[in-house]
Write a structure and sequence with these properties.
With about 170 residues, this protein is mainly β. Helices cover about 0% and strands about 55% of the residues.
C-alpha cells in the first residue's frame, strides 16, 4: 500500500537529524515506482551508502539500484558549499553537477533531463530515510493567468503534468 511507504511528516517525535553524521551508513530497502493514479509500474532493491571522505566538506553519496539481474551503482559526492551544510553540489563524477539543498531533515534537489523535470526528496526520520522522486514532462505545460485586465496584476503561471513517483523506505543495514 502506498500509504505505508509515506509516514506522516513533521511529527514531534521526528528528531532533528545531525547532518551529515546521522546520515552516515549503509541504507537499503525496496523502491516502488507508480504512475500517476497509483498504478504500480515496478519494484526493485535500492541502497544508499553515505560516508565521510578525507575532506570535511565532501561526502560520499552512492545510490544503488538492483533488479536482481543488474546492479546499477552510482558513485557520487555531495560537496558542501557552506559551513552550515545547507547547500551542496552533487558531483556525479561525469561532468554533471546538481544543486541540492538541506532543510532540517530533508535533502532536496530539482533538475531536468531531456525535457523531464525531476524533484528528489530524501527525508531522515530516525531509523529510516524516505526517498521520493517525482517526474513529469516540461514541454507539456499548462499556462494560465495574465489574461485579465493588466491593472489587476495577475501573473502568468505555468503548471506541469506529473507522470510518476518513485518511493522507497531505506533502513540502516
Amino acid at each position: 500500500m502506498v500509504a505505508s511507504l509515506c509516514p506522516t511528516i513533521g511529527h514531534a517525535q521526528d528528531q532533528l537529524a545531525t547532518f551529515p553524521d546521522d546520515w552516515y551508513g549503509d541504507w537499503e530497502g525496496q523502491v516502488t515506482t507508480y504512475a500517476m493514479g497509483g498504478r504500480k509500474l515496478y519494484d526493485l532493491k535500492m541502497e544508499l551508502h553515505v560516508s565521510p571522505t578525507d575532506s570535511a566538506h565532501r561526502i560520499k553519496w552512492t545510490i544503488v539500484y538492483d533488479t536482481g539481474e543488474k546492479r546499477d551503482e552510482r558513485g557520487y559526492e555531495m560537496v558542501a558549499q557552506d559551513t552550515a551544510y545547507t547547500y551542496f553540489i552533487l558531483d556525479e563524477k561525469n561532468s554533471i553537477f546538481l544543486d541540492s539543498y538541506r532543510s532540517r531533515n530533508y535533502l532536496l534537489s530539482r533538475f531536468s533531463v531531456n525535457q523531464t523535470l525531476l524533484m528528489t526528496s530524501y527525508y531522515h526520520a530516525g531509523d529510516h530515510i524516505r526517498c521520493e522522486i517525482f517526474t513529469g514532462r516540461m514541454d507539456e505545460k499548462n499556462v494560465s493567468g495574465d489574461t485579465l485586465d493588466p491593472s489587476i496584476g495577475v501573473t502568468e503561471v505555468a503548471s506541469y503534468p506529473m507522470s510518476s513517483v518513485q518511493r522507497a523506505l531505506l533502513y540502516r543495514k
